[in-house]
Amino acid sequence: MSLDKRLHAYRDDLAESALEGQVAARRYTTGEEGRIVTAVAPLRRQPRPGAPLDTELLFGEDVTVLDRTDGWAWIKSKRDDYVGYIPTGSVGPVGPPATHRMAALRGFVFPRPDLKAPPVMTIHLGSRLTVTGESGRYSELAGGGYVYSDYLRPIDTLEDDPIAVALKFMNAPYLWGGRSSLGLDCSALVQLSWQACGIECPRDTDMQFDRFGTLINYDGDENSLRRGDLVFWKGHIGIWIDQDRFLHSNASDMMVAMAPLAFTADRIASKGEGPITGIRRPPMPTKTDT
């Protein structure tokens, strides 16, 4: 049986218990629960620093730890099921449930509620935090540290516009496998923007093309598109906003940039990277009057 190793944890010596009977391994494990304790945890394809960066996990995201060997933890993300290796120092025990999420693009964690104190960490949009108290303009975090309260939103208070979230990342650097405001790739821009609205989204472009939203007919007439439609090429994705604005994190500009879709499509084609392969209409938040 052929399974996607990005989403299914199996090696010759070990596999996740859910795959028992589907793959051969010397033993199977349910693993142990863990939580990301660093600002960003790079998830690599193999347990070595120079291995390809497949994705990143953010502070407070929960994982299943399947194995720990030689400074690396083999994990599966509970957010999007991604499997890979992160440094063991990036994962700690699961504490109290997250109460808040980081809504600002990025912000500092201070050792005390004082803007003059040297920051101990920079956290990013989408990080999940457990707030235990308030001190003036700052929220105290479980495990120590303080974050400016205006950066945070209660965990169940969601954004209502993924395009507005995506626009926060304008000019953020492009990084293959990146998933934070310090660097992100095209599919991470989409995933983070919809996750902020409470809509889970697969991690990679091919996964998003296969199962995120509804495939629509497109004959090149942008009048048939809606704000938020996702435009795909082989290995690339971006967000259509209107006829003047198409937003994507891309390796031509090496940042999150915006240009008309026609210009972008011509530029991609001129590099021999092919035509638009499809357009999907993603789920959108349901807005309610208050």
From TrEMBL:
Bilayer-spanning residue ranges: none
UniProt GO MF annotations: cysteine-type peptidase activity
InterPro entries in the cross-refs: NLP_P60_dom (IPR000064), Papain-like_cys_pep_sf (IPR038765), PG_Endopeptidase_C40 (IPR051794), SH3_16 (IPR041382)
Domain NlpC/P60: 156-283
Coiled-coil stretches: none
GO annotation, biological process: proteolysis
Source taxon at top rank: Bacteria
Keywords: Hydrolase, Protease, Thiol protease
Family statement drawn from the similarity comment of this UniProt entry: Belongs to the peptidase C40 family.
Protein known as: Peptidase P60
